[in-house]
Amino acid sequence: MPSNTGHTVKAFDEELGQLRALISEMGGLAEQAINQAMQALTRRDNDAAMRVVENDHRIDALEMEVERLAVRLIALRAPMADDLREVVAAMKIAGVVERIGDYAKNIAKRVPQFAEAKDIGPLAILPEMGKMASEMVRTALDAFAARSPEQAQAVVARDTALDTFYNSVFRALLTYMMENPHNITPCAHLLFMAKNLERVGDHATNIGEMVYFAATGAHLAERVRGGDLDD
User: Fold this and answer.
1) Could you please report the per-residue DSSP string of 16-47?
2) Could you give the number of structural domains in the chain?
3) Confidence (pTM)
């Protein structure tokens, strides 16, 4: 009997490790998609943008694999307490990361709109916003891998800075649109891109909150929203 129990515990630990690895792979792909979409925008590289769109199916496939493994773990291993919270968090996080991948895909889809557009000032600072958002995703997924409530809190704390960045971009783009009607179409596309990045930050923050609960069993205090100008 002790041998069987030890085998069961070892098998569960291995499957939990596999679940963490799948989440890590998903997060890496989502972070890469954001960065590549921003590079495609900066270079006005339509081919690179389309590769981001085409590669999104890999994130979708991993989400389904996480869901299957998580359901199997719950059904066969009946985890309790900390382990159950981690398995449930992994399943929820996979859905959030899949959505982050969709935002990167949505950004990439708009890149062809800038093939003939003139230079627009705020376009140059949008990649910095993208960098901030992708770093939040990376930190959130690192927090999950390490079961670190401190890293999870750090992600939540950064969301306000990203909201502030978005509001600055929003105002700058409105100014460009009012100054020249020819700027309206490209600026509108940049607004949608910036909003997608702001949502990436929101989802990274959601992951941070899930990680904190999985690691501690307690919920973070209700966060104060940044007051998006277009909400």
Assistant:
1) HHHHHHHHHHHHHHHHHHHHHHHHHHHHT-HH
2) 1
3) 0.89
